[in-house]
Amino acid sequence: MKTHLLPNRLRTLLMRSVGYRHYSLVVATIAFVTTITFSFPFVAVLIPAVLLAPRRWRTLGLLCGLASGCGAAVLVEIFQYLGGEFIAARYPELVSMEVWQRASEWLQDWGLLAVLIIAGSPMPQTPALLFCALADVSSLGILAAVAIGKTAKYLFMAWATAHYPTRFMRYN
To answer: What is the top-level taxon of the source organism (predicted)?
Structure first.
């Protein structure tokens, strides 16, 4: 039974690169890729990354927030390229999801401020990004909103991890 949340390849990559100057860029690249693929929450990588290099918490938080903003802008461009019909045909259950309904209401009422709030919260941002793509929201606006929201979230998580590491360590 696997008890670790972080895949072995990512853990090995973090362990091998922690002693180098490019460590923060490696973690930021992982943030970019996880945002585009929405494969798993990036915080599962950020916390171990900060535990391995607690002095770099500021750099990790800033770079990962910016990388997530860039990844979100690329994801919106991909969604816009594919088109609404393709997405609705592939994922018909998305439109009926509660998260989709909440995100669409927030986006209609608040615009990019809603994207910023969603990016900084624990809510999944992919439905909001999909809705933004279908509504033709500017990719630069998405980049800025997600980068600000994720940077604030990641800086807080990185600070908390660096200053209170025992709360984030798993004991067996």
So the answer is: Bacteria
